Amino acid sequence: MNYAVRTERAKTEKYVESAARGMPNCKLTNYKTVCNTTQFDKVVFMGVLRGTHLVYRHAQKNNKDFYYIDRPYWGESRGTPYWMRCVKNQHVKTFVDHRPDDRFKKTYKDDIKPFHKNGKYVLVVPPSHAMAEMFDGKDWLANTLKVLKQNTDRELVVREKPYNPEAIIDNVGKMLPGTSANKQPAKPFEWDKVHAVVTFNSSITIKALTNGVPAFANFDNPCLPICEQDFSKIETPKYEDPRPVLNSLAYNQFTQEEFRNGYYLEILDGR
Fold first, then answer.
1. What phi, psi does 13 have (nearest 5°)?
2. Cα 94 to the chain's mean position, in Å?
3. Residue 202's domain spans which residues?
4. Is 234 helix (H, G, I), strand (E, B) or coil?
5. pTM given for the model
6. Total domains present in the chain
7. Helix, strand, or coil here: 130?
8. Residue 125 in domain
9. pLDDT, tens only, 113-148
10. Any long-range contacts for 59-67 (C-beta under 8 Å, 24+ apart)?
11. Is 209 domain-assigned?
């Protein structure tokens, strides 16, 4: 038996329903059903809110294969075709399996710019409230700023996600979205002024590296293989070609049709 966990939201339910159709012997259910049993082989779910963070931890604890769906690394999740990332047994893909560039070229529409080395400030991007709750990152920003201030005189600019609701844990342990102090749309970065990006698990590393800015990350991050993980080295970042990582990540995001026909399992299970 395999399970797919309902999202409790109509606009995202379609992704889980599609993934369920593509997974043999899969039943759509709620998070409580999954968390109350170990009699299953695989489970697919989306995000960490409304009970799914409990499914994530339950699957990890019991060594069950799980398939985590969330917004794409790049591209549009609300346009046509719909793209969503899907990762096996992780929140994001943190390794490089050498893939051709066909899917990357198909989905990534911007140029990859060469690295520049004349940036002035350090852009610090902390985890969202939900990710900080999920992955024990509540002290990340304070700890990171302390290390950076000890190792650079550059200006440190902190930028949270444009929409970052509080993470509320209810009386049964389910994580729910609260209110967001910041509801402003994202403003474009002036990448030529950025020396480096420092982050937790944000895919801002992809935008940075494709705009000629090196990245630092010390937790699960889609660009972790080419990020410097030691923040004390803020003045000596890595300048590595992002293309192999991007080609690899492109094989971790799928259309609804690729969920429905099981192609996502073919790729993620290495069949």
1. -60, -30
2. 10
3. 121-240
4. coil
5. 0.92
6. 2
7. helix
8. yes
9. 999 999 999 999 999 888 888 888 899 999 999 999
10. 59/34, 60/89, 62/38, 64/38, 64/40, 65/41, 65/89, 66/42, 67/19, 67/23, 67/42, 67/43, 67/264, 67/265, 67/268
11. yes
